[in-house]
Amino acid sequence: MITCVVHYTINPDQIEAFEQFALEWIRLVNKHGGTHHGYFLPAEGASDKAEALFSFNSFADYEQYRKLFGVDPEFIAADEIRNTSGCVVRYERTFMRPLLA
Question: What's the pLDDT tens digit per position in 40-70?
């Protein structure tokens, strides 16, 4: 299993748009073979940080999902939420392997 951790810097004035963007990506990851563990939004402290975690059985499965970016109309529409609202200032992906008890 591989887990993608996405670290976001978000525009706090566009939190509702970010939530809409996030809900679409949760749906798309789950629809295309992954398991989305959720988005984690600011509650206290810094108001411009958010995180997302989702897993695929293998990096090869993740790569199959990535092939849909910029091609699948649902993926394009989800990205358009981000692009038009400016809710994401920047993001960084890290791939990790979970150690579970």
Answer: 998 887 699 999 999 999 999 999 999 999 9
List strands edge to edge, sheet with 88-96.
35-40, 49-56, 2-10, 88-96
With beta carbons less than 8 A apart as the criterion, state whether 51 and 8 touch. yes
Phi, psi of 12 (to 5 degrees): -60, -20
Q: Which long-range contacts (CB under 8 A, 24 or more apart) does 97-100 make?
A: 97/1, 97/2, 97/3, 98/1, 98/3, 98/55
pTM exceeds 0.85? yes
**Cβ proximity of 91 and 8 under 8 Å:** yes
